[in-house]
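OP here, attaching both records as promised.
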Amino acid sequence: MFERENYHLVSERSEMSEYLAPDASMVVHFLNTNNVDLYVSDYLNYTNYNILKLITDFPEELLEYLDPSIEYLRFEINSNTRICDGVRLKFKHSKEILLSSPDQLEAYLSSGTIKGLGVSVSAVIQ
């Protein structure tokens, strides 16, 4: 998902860009020329809370980018109820931390890390 060889150049600005308005965007051009729908997620209700909206296995590269001290973050999901039964969090050079709920992550991870995880996963699954 985050490996560079999975990406390819879609479009490149031409000399005509000097005639574009300063707020013209390559993203708008791409959306218009490729008939792509744009989805917007409202995270306003989550602004003052450090909780994950989605529970999933996060790529190690994303965890490393957001907080290099995290060795792993794993969720134990009950296969019958699809409810999270627990969380395993391990920082490098530390013992594993067992949590009973993802809500408890805010005591161990920064708000930037939690929000970064939520936004990144939401962007991928939209």
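Record two, same layout:
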Amino acid sequence: MYMKRWKALLGTIALSLGLLFAVSGSNQASAASWHKGTPKALRGKWRDPNEHSSRIIFNQKTIAFYSKEEFSGKFGIPAWHVKYKIVGHYKYKLHYYIPHDNHWENATWRRVNNRITNGHGWLYKY
């Protein structure tokens, strides 16, 4: 009789622990993980108000940099294989490949209302 109670108690504990780990181990999105593409908060066309030729376009999976320099051309300098990490409130760390220079780059962008910055001046949405 004592042995049956002991086995029942061990079975109950094992089942409870199994359910506990199953519920706590569910898939949850982490802000610290890398996400593919660009953040929705940055998508769109952004321009420097002082230099209208300097602008950036964030698409879903790519970024295009335009400047007054000749090598940016009609379609801008593209950035591919974009991924981002959330590092704060409307603050994102982006990692992308620039084939024009054949290198990877990191940049931290922050959005405040209708403007964004990477620490080198503000760009406004147009």
